[in-house]
Every structure is written in structure tokens, then in C-alpha cells.
Amino acid sequence: MEKILLIIQREYIQRVRTRWFLLSTILTPFVLLGVSALPMLASQGARSGNNNVVVLDQSGDPALFTTIKQKMADSREALQQLTGQSDPIILNMMMTNFELSHVIIPPGEDIDASRRTHNTDIQNNILRGYVVLRPEVLDKAEPEYYAKNVSDLSLSQLGSSIGKAIIERRLVRAGLEPAKASDYLRTVEMKLIKIEGGSEKQGSAQNVLLPLLMFFSMFGTIYFYGISVMQGVIEEKQSRIVEVMLSSVKPFTMMIGKIVGIGLVGLTQYVIWILSVVALTKINVSLFGGATRLRAFSGTMFLWFVLYFVLGYFLYATVYAIIGSIVSRQDDAHLLQYPITLMIAAPGLMFWYVMRDPSGAQTTALSLFPFFAPTLMMLRLGVVAPPLWQILLSLLLMILTIAAGIWLAARIYRVGILMYGKRPSLIEVGRWLRYE
User: Fold this and answer.
1) Which residues is 144 bridged to in the sheet?
2) Among 168, 173, 162, which residue's Cα sits nearest to residue 186?
3) Closest C-alpha among 393, 390, 435 to residue 412
4) What integer pLDDT is reported at residue 146 of this predicted model?
5) Half-sphere exposure of 327 (CA within 13 A, CB side)
6) Distance of alpha carbon 346 from alpha carbon 341, whole angstroms
7) Predicted pLDDT at 48
8) What radius of gyration do the chain's Cα atoms show?
9) What is this structure's pTM?
């Protein structure tokens, strides 16, 4: 046990003291802060920039433009209710806040001549665009939008608001009272109520963010530190340090020490990142008017996250240690690691399926598979909490798989760690397993 602790200490200190560790640990929270701040700054710039849109109105209906502006306000309010977000900066990131101005074109005047005069304003960036409402727009003509950029996704909201306003004014012209026409066209949003633990609470589109963050952080960490184990084994083989170490410790002891030591480096980095993100998020809130907020992360969820991270890391680190002990060059390692990398990445292809049916039979079976459990079970926990027996069963299967993997890795590691030159065949690796 003392020798294992010494190896763990060596692996941990050796990596924590590197410039790469210090730079990545310190810079990553600031990069995350910058990534979150840039869209907000861009949104603030867009809000103060050129969002001016002129409405060239020849419809003859004096209330049409007012109705369009009301429908635009209604769309923004609906977006706010759907996302649960009230901060104007965040709303401007999701939907362009068009500044509409009204130009009435008298009947009989050439609206296209007036329209062409605004093309120069668009070219000179005085206008973002303009809308043309022809005389027949309340009958059968379609509204038209002219601009240099017609790829803004928010144009669908602008078009929808104009369309609803036109329909409402048609209903009024047909004899319906304006208030009733507006009520009939009001968008009806379906409330999302989540039943959890015998209680009910309203959900929103933000519910997907937490499981998405957990999923990709788990994927990235397990992959990165698993690769670190493999590279560490290969580097020691190439430098022949391993020959000196094996004179005083057993191969199994050295393998366990390396896996645990590198794993502790990952946990250290995670703790620093979490504390930094909490601190920087508070700064971000004050800088951007409360634009960024941390969602509640329960203690139970944190416990599951730590368990699946640790077990997932051990599972894949053991496999990567086997690969590192088999090969002697990085090029050979890259070829052998592809199937393992695909195994880690495969749950990403199932992400939306699990989100859609987190309690289905197929989703349950996939989340119980030990190599998929770290990511898929955490994803299920973030969406709809599975039964406790499924969580415990997945943990048990992972522990049994890790035990089998360590036994297998130890038998391969003790021989492969001293093998140099060409990559061994599967038959040779099979012989290593039979050595006593």
C-alpha cells in the first residue's frame, strides 16, 4: 500500500507542477467567462446598433402598423415566458429587437419608386431593411422584406407578427370587434409541468441545459484523462524509466498508482474550475445585469456525478493503460484507441433519443451498459430521475467490469510494459494472459 501511495504521489505532483496544468487550470474559467460574455456584448452592440426597419405602408389601414408593433411585443413576451428569461440582453441574443418606423405611402403613388430610394440607405447601413405593404395586402398580396441580410432567424418572428396583424385587420374589416379579433389570434402556449417525487413544478426550455452540460463535461474529462494514462505508460516505456521502477515495485502496483494519480489530477482540476466558475459567475452577474445565473445543482445530483465520473474514469483508464502497455509508439496507440474513443463518443449519437424517451426500455438497457453508463445514466438523471435500483445496478455493473478490467490489465501490463519494438498480435497478447 505504501508503494502505491508513493506512485500516486509521484504521478500527481509530476503533472500538477507542469506549465500545461497550471495554464489550462487558470485560463479555462476565464475562457468560459469570455465565451459567455462575448454573445452578451455582441447583443448589447446589436441593441444599440442598426436594427432600424422602415414599414412602407400603402394598405390604407391606419391601425395596421400599430397592430404589427403590438404583435412584435407579444412575440417577445411569448419568448420570455417560454424560456423563463426576462433579461433583455439574453432576449436580444435569441431574438432581434427590430426598431420599426412607419412611412405612409398615399394611394396612387408609386410605392416601388419610394422603395428604391431606401435601397441606398440599406447600402450605407442607415437601415437594416424595410417592409413593403402594398394596397392589396389586406386582400391577397403578401408583405415583402428587403435587406442585405435575409438570413436572420428572427425574421421569422417579424414575418409571423406582420402576418398575424394582417389577419387581425382582415377580421376587423369583416365586422369582428378589434378586441375579439386580437383574442382569437393570441398564441396559446402549452405549459410544461414536471412531475418529480410527488411534486409538480413548471419546466422550461432551460431544463435541457443542465443535462447537456453534465453530458459533455463527463465525456470530455473521461476521454482526456484516459488518454493521459495511455500516453504516460508509453512515455515511460520509451524513456526506459519503467525498467528502473519495476526493480522495486510490481507492475500491478505501478499501474494502479498511475491510474489513481492521474485521476486525482483530473479531480483537482475540476474542483478548481467549479470554484472559479462560481466566483466568476458572480462577477459576470454584476457586470451584465444578472444575465448569467447558476441553476440549482442538488447535493444528490453532485454525488451521482462524482460516482459516475470516478467509475467511468477508472473503466476507461484501465483500457487505455492496456493499450499503452501493448504498444511502444504513439502512432500505434492512435490506431488502437479509435474503438475506445468511439465507445466514449457513441452516447453522443443517442443524446436526443435519450432526451425524448429517458425511461424507455432501450434507453434503460443502454444506460446500464457499463461503457455507456457514465454519460447516459447522468443524462437520464438530469432529465427524469430513473428508479434507484437502475442507478445502483448500473454502478454495480461498472464496478464488476472495472474489477475484470483491472485483472485483465494487470496480466497484460506485467508483460507488455517491458515489450519494445513491433506491436504484438492478438495471439501474443493472449499468451501474456496465460503467463503465471
Assistant:
1) 132
2) 168
3) 435
4) 92
5) 19
6) 8
7) 43
8) 30
9) 0.63
